[in-house]
Amino acid sequence: MTKLIQNFINGKVTASKSNISGDVFNPATGEKTAEIKFATAAEVDLAVKTAANAFPKWADTSPLRRARILFKFKELLDKHSTEIAKIITAEHGKVFEDARGELTRGIEVVEFACGIPHLLKGEFSENIGGGIDSYSIRQPLGVCAGISPFNFPAMVPMWMFPLAIACGNTFVLKPSEKDPSTSLRLAELLQDAGLPDGVFNIVNGDKVAVDALLNHPSISAISFVGSTPVAEYIYKTGTSKHKRVQSLGGAKNHCIVLPDVDLDQTAASLMGAAYGSAGERCMAISVAVVVGEQTADKLVQKLQDRIKKLKVAPGTEPGAEMGPLVTKQHLEKVVSYVDHGVKEGAKLVADGRGFKVKHHENGYFLGPCLFDHVQTKMRIYQEEIFGPVLCVVRVKDFDAAISLINQHRFGNGAAIFTNDGIAARYFASKIEAGMVGINVPIPVPMAFYSFGGWKDSIFGDYAIYGAEGVRFYTKLKTVTSRWPKEALKAEFMMPTMK
């Protein structure tokens, strides 16, 4: 019998009355594994009202008590990590070890959120004037919502809700309809950790659910990770409704390769950065900007040699290095980009189209694709492909490489491979991207920093998680107090704290 995936409201799985549903597939086999019921606008309203009802009591719960629940949640995540990783692999398709790595990065944010008693500490100034003290506090916003993508069904939701609820907010999550089971398992573990009913809720669905969240008057803040067109829509719609919005969009992450590097080591790094998780990462390296023709020739050859040895297989298979794409539709979209690149005149030196895995012929597999001599006017350079496609752009010098990257509309991440400290320092200072790697191809910040790009890779003033996350999920209040010993006369001028 096909599994039926429902909403999670007020601490329990809640059956939907919607007549609209979607299918969930195993990407490695192409088989339908579950049916997901999409929430109606009324059911989204119920989830938000449930969260709103739970908010006053949860906001009044001490930060220490909230942290203890998160400590227990972290303990349960560790205990069930293998189980959760298997759920991720079964619905997303990424290899098992990559799924475990994703979960680990999500757990790190939970660990950061466990420090919320310290993170919420304000400032205090004694006797700023005439027996007057001043201090600041940070208070929760109310009901917050998160809309997360398919590529990280555990990590990205955990970029959002642990910090939101640690700050005293309640939360409604709308996970991707392509791989929703992970979020439901996280909700169950939160309940097991002692989270009160109604603090964390899940509504499944598509644009109907998204718009219901965006337009709901009781939602105070929305976090989003996904494509740039949708990110911009989320930002404009949410802010027009006077909500606080952090909306992270697409990317076209570049990596400069200078002639002084160890090309074997660089090729190995690029393989993981470009083809790990089948390229379905917003921080994947999709463009290698190589300085010098000889360096480019050697690097492309080394990449070709490694691509031939890359093990593409179901994510559950031991030794698998790259799994399938998430859906048949996404596979067709990525293949269309490869077709377009060939038509535009780029040299396809590794063609993964038509790749088949024995006994999994109906799986959504695409072998690694490598383009050389890519020009900046080409669509495969300009747009985010979100698949296992690496483009090599050749430039004459370092300045041309930096100029090329800075002219791109996206600015999520950028990396450089070099042994030259002066070049690396200049790159870190001048490159127009929010996250920078020096001999690190995927510079995703640790949980105690913050994740966020520049330009069309983000909409809003707040990066996600870390200190920026605490600021996003709280509002600042500054208190000025006086306890006079004697009666005060009325003052008719602007107070100056004399």
How would you describe this protein?
With 498 residues, the protein is α/β, with parallel strands linked by helices. Helix 1 (41-60) crosses helix 8, helix 2 runs antiparallel to helix 4 and helix 2 crosses helix 7 (181-192). It has 16 helices and 23 strands. The model has no long low-confidence stretch (mean pLDDT 97). The strands form six sheets. Strands 15-16-17-14-13-19-20 form a seven-stranded mixed beta sheet, sandwiched between helices. It is globular, with a radius of gyration of 25 Å. It is 39% helix and 23% strand. It folds into two domains: 3-249 and 457-479, 3-Layer(aba) Sandwich (Aldehyde Dehydrogenase, Chain A, domain 1); 253-438, Aldehyde Dehydrogenase, Chain A, domain 2.
Sum up the structure in keywords.
16 helices, 23 strands, 498 residues, 6-stranded mixed β-sheet, Aldehyde Dehydrogenase, Chain A, domain 1, 7-stranded mixed β-sheet, alpha/beta, Aldehyde Dehydrogenase, Chain A, domain 2, single chain, 39% helix
